[in-house]
Structure formats: C-alpha cells, structure tokens
Amino acid sequence: MPRYGTIDFDYAAQLAGCPPDEDGPVLMVNYMKYRERADYRDGVDHGRSGREADDEYAPVEVLAAIGAIVAFVGDVVDGGAGTSSGWDRIGIVQYPTRRSFIEMQSRRDFKEKHTHKEAGMDRTIVFAVPPAAVLSASLPGRAGHVVFDLVHRADGTTDPAAAQAIGRVEGTILGDGRSWTELRITWIDEPAAADNLTGDGVDDRELVIVRPTIDRLASLLGARRQGE
C-alpha cells in the first residue's frame, strides 16, 4: 500500500475490468506534493530530496514499452486564488487503455522504479480523464503557464465557459478521499491572467498555476479531435 494516498479499490476494479470494446485512451493526471527529504523503506538516507527521488522514479522506459505518452510535466509556481495545498508538480500520462494502467503496476521494472516514488512523495491525487470526454474551445499553441483547476460540482453540471478545455473526471484512483467532477485547463502567458478563472458554483477545488517543462497536451487533444 502506498504511504502517500488512499487507493479507491472500487475504481481500480473498474479500470482492470473494463471490457476491451469499451476501453480506450485515458489521461492519468497527477497532483504531486513532495517530502522535503526522501524517506526510503530501508531506513537509509540516500541523500535525495523528495523531488530528486521522484526524478529518479520517472518510468519513461516502462511507459514507452506499454505505448503510453507523457503528455505534460510542469512545476507549480502558484497555488492559485483561494487554494493553499502547496502542490509541487503536475504530471499527466496518456495510457492507451485503462487496463494498461492497472497492468503496469504488476511489472517488475515498474515496481523497481516505484520505490523512488514512494520515498519521495508526501501526498498525491491521481485521477482519470478520458480524452474523448474533453470539451474544448480552440486549443492554443505554446504558452508560458498552464492553469489546472480540479473541481467538484455537487450538481454534476459542467460550465463550458470556465476554461479552454474541460475534462470529465471518470474516477480518482489515489487521493485523500475527496471526489472530483471535472478538470479545467487554461493556457496563459502570465500567472496574473489566472485571477479571473475561479468562477462560481464550485463546491471544492484544487487550482494550480504551472510552468510546463513538457506540454504535449494541447496537441494530443487536438489530434484526437481531428480524428473524430
């Protein structure tokens, strides 16, 4: 069991048992908060910060082997208006299927890498957004920052004017017990441009402003729209 979040076993079973004819690509979004110092189970100080341990984890070869794509990686530069959770990084991977995400957990090479993630991560939220369910306006080219606004709306509705792209949250595989209904994504040039993005009608939210180091998200969503 991971030390940095609670698994939703019902949703895990849903992912693992998804019928092939109903399965397909899924974006797994990670909100990450690191330990100040990596804490390995062997009790040895390996001389790494939590962030450095997560960098050591980065399972690029494993993802490539199963056909997954790193869609986004970026560092949080601002918690956003009305938030105080102190997230450090956002990462998004597009998996070819839901089942491939679950099956990856049993791979030996992934388990070896995961030792570093467990040591470095203080807490996380990992949730799934099907690309096919993303509502989007005109997607931008490159931008200096990206706003990720994870929200829960008790009425279950979606506000189409709230962001450039809005994805329905299918489920949260790892988190803190809270549930979420949608992820709003907006590409901006400067952090101050996010001041008017908070909106109304939201019961809970985790809003962060992120400086991307990898951003293939808009192109992946755009390619999917063109292929539909």
Describe the structure.
The protein has helices spanning 9-16, 50-57, 60-65, 98-104, 108-120, 217-227; strands spanning 6-7, 26-34, 69-78, 89-95, 121-129, 135-136, 145-152, 165-168, 171-175, 182-188, 204-215. By secondary structure, the protein is an alpha+beta fold. It has a domain at 6-32 and 69-93 and 123-227. Strands 1-9-5-2-4-3-11-7-10-8-6 form an eleven-stranded antiparallel beta sheet.
**Main pleated-sheet profile:** 11 strands, antiparallel
CA radius of gyration is 17 Å
Give the overall shape, derived from the CA principal axes. globular
Q: Mean of residue pLDDT?
A: 88
How far is it from the N-terminal to the C-terminal residue, by CA?
Answer: 39 Å
Total count of strands: 11
Beta-strand percentage? Answer: 25-35%
Continuous helix count: 6
Instruction: Specify the helix fraction band.
Output: 10-25%
Strand order of the main beta sheet, please? 1-9-5-2-4-3-11-7-10-8-6
**How would you classify the helix and strand content by structural class?**
alpha+beta
Q: Please trace the helix and strand order, writing H or E for each element.
A: EHEHHEEHHEEEEEEEH
Provide the low-confidence segments as ranges. none
